[in-house]
Write a structure and sequence with these properties.
The protein has helices spanning 2-6, 22-35, 37-50, 59-72, 91-104, 112-125, 129-142, 160-165, 168-185, 194-202, 207-214, 217-223, 225-235, 244-254, 259-271, 278-291, 296-306, 309-321, 329-339, 347-358, 365-378, 389-401, 403-419, 433-439, 443-456; strands at 7-8, 11-12. The protein is elongated. Among the domains are: 237-342; 345-457. With 457 residues, the protein is mostly helical. Helix 6 runs antiparallel to helix 7, helix 20 (347-358) packs parallel to helix 22 (389-401) and helix 23 (403-419) packs parallel to helix 25 (443-456). InterPro entries: ARM-type_fold. Residues 146-166 are annotated as: Disordered.
């Protein structure tokens, strides 16, 4: 069929109508090869030996095998409209076949992006020192390729993540990261030139090339944290806004163990106004605190640096969800005490804190009282109208269970209000007077409260 499209009367087709169908035929051949590589690898050799079809027409088979291997490695979507797959091909065999084809057929090198994609695929399944050496040799050959072109001064160009997957150096950089991960997972030594190659890509003039490394740093750090940090430092000088989305997950993962290092990048991100993924940071930091890898103090400091309401609310919600678990109760309480007030006050943050008093019961008296102490000293009002009913009624309920402790909370509130007019905002003068009078059964406390009220008026 291919010969029919390319030859007529024994002569090659030139500018004929049927030749316009070749791109479609090539795509069909690529998809078919991706679905059943074992069936089409022999066809690759038949095309080359036919003498009727140019070698380049065999390239779709090579590309299809690459697609199949990337999918099998979890690095690409299913080929075609859906991968039903016949008998699964041996991935190591396919990787070795791709390397053999690169070694033996120069025409494949006419498309460097095709080669870079194949190196990505082979990096997942490299199984012998010879295969590793061959992949590295090809990566070094492509490291100086002109694609992508440098961005002009003041020109932002395309999205770095898009450039990473659609440029020669971008894909080659990612293939180097993948090969490194494959070797480290198998506890095999890295080639001597691999760290230098990774740092070469990490300092590439185009941000899109650096993204190809940054997206793999979180996993790389599990096996070689030192190398991962070297790559991150190199790729983040300077910390470009367009690289932040790719660098941020690594910093989230490293925060508990390398607080000081990550803190420096968070300060930079805040100074440059970079968008913070609040939900991800909140979950990551709170989970690390519960696991014991991050102290409550560092949790609070991190949320303060992020200055993200979303991060604070997410972290607080994670902690609150674990309050009922005896294993985490102490850690949750300590963490909640530490983070109250560090991100300022908004209506949503206030509601989150007050929900502790709304939900308080016999089993959570101590927790609610500890939070109450911190709340009374940290709350300094809101620029909009707010309602502290849950706090007051929560204290009233708790007073029946722990009257002495609630009296101590009231003492702390009044003492704070006497020292600072700002702290008086917690009383909402006149709004809950009767409820407060019930709480303040002690004559001295009640008289001090009345005096504070009169001063406010």
């Amino acid at each position: 069929m291919l010969a029919h499209y390319l030859r007529t009367g024994g002569e090659p087709f030139q500018d004929r109508t049927l030749s316009r169908e070749m791109p479609r035929q090539a795509e069909i051949l690529r998809q078919a090869s991706a679905l059943a590589p074992d069936h089409f690898i022999p066809f690759f050799e038949k095309i080359l030996s036919s003498g009727q079809i140019t070698d380049e027409r065999a390239a779709p088979v090579f590309e299809g095998v690459t697609d199949h291997l990337l999918f099998r490695s979890g690095d690409a979507p299913p080929p075609g409209n859906g991968f039903t797959g016949v008998t699964p091909s041996d991935t190591v065999f396919l990787g070795n076949w791709l390397l053999h084809a690169l070694r033996c057929h120069d025409f494949l090198w006419d498309d460097a992006l095709r080669i870079a994609g194949a190196l990505r695929a082979c990096g997942h399944v490299a199984d012998t020192p010879a295969a590793v050496s061959e992949i590295l040799s090809c990566q070094l050959r492509l490291a100086g390729h002109r694609d992508p072109e440098p961005e002009k001064n003041g020109e932002k160009g395309n999205d770095p993540a898009c450039v990473s997957r659609n440029s020669v150096r971008g894909q080659t950089a990612e293939s180097a990261a993948i090969l490194t991960l494959t070797l480290l997972k198998k506890q095999r030594p890295l080639p001597d030139l691999m760290p230098s190659l990774l740092l070469r890509f990490a300092t590439d003039i185009h941000p899109g090339v650096r993204v190809g490394l940054l997206r793999h740093l979180t996993r790389l750090a599990r096996y070689d944290a030192r190398l991962a940090w070297q790559i991150h430092h190199a790729a983040s000088r300077p910390l470009l806004p367009r690289l932040w989305p790719s660098a941020e997950p690594f910093l989230q993962h490293q925060y508990p163990r390398h607080f000081t290092r990550v803190k420096g990048y968070l300060v930079q991100a805040r100074q440059k106004g970079l968008g913070i993924s609040g939900t991800s940071w909140g979950k990551s930091l709170a989970t690390a605190c519960l696991s014991g890898t991050l102290s409550a103090r560092h949790l609070a400091e991190g949320l303060g640096l992020l200055a993200s309401e979303t991060a604070w609310l997410t972290a607080f919600d994670v902690l609150k969800q674990h309050l009922a678990d005896p294993v985490y109760r102490a850690a949750c309480t300590a963490a909640m005490e530490n983070i109250i007030g560090v991100s300022g006050w908004t209506p949503d943050i206030l509601d989150a804190v007050l929900s502790v008093f709304e939900d308080s019961d016999t089993d959570s008296v101590d927790i609610a009282l500890q939070i109450a102490y911190k709340f009374t000293s940290a709350f300094n009002g809101l620029p909009v109208e707010y309602d502290l009913s849950d706090f007051y009624y929560g204290l009233l309920r708790l007073s029946a269970l722990a009257p002495i402790a609630v009296r101590q909370v009231c003492e702390a509130i009044i003492s704070g209000a006497e020292e600072s007019p700002v702290q008086r905002r917690i009383w909402q003068t006149g709004r809950h007077s009767e409820l407060i009078r019930v709480l303040l059964q002690d004559t001295d406390l009640l008289s001090r409260y009345i005096r504070i009220q009169s001063q406010g008026e």
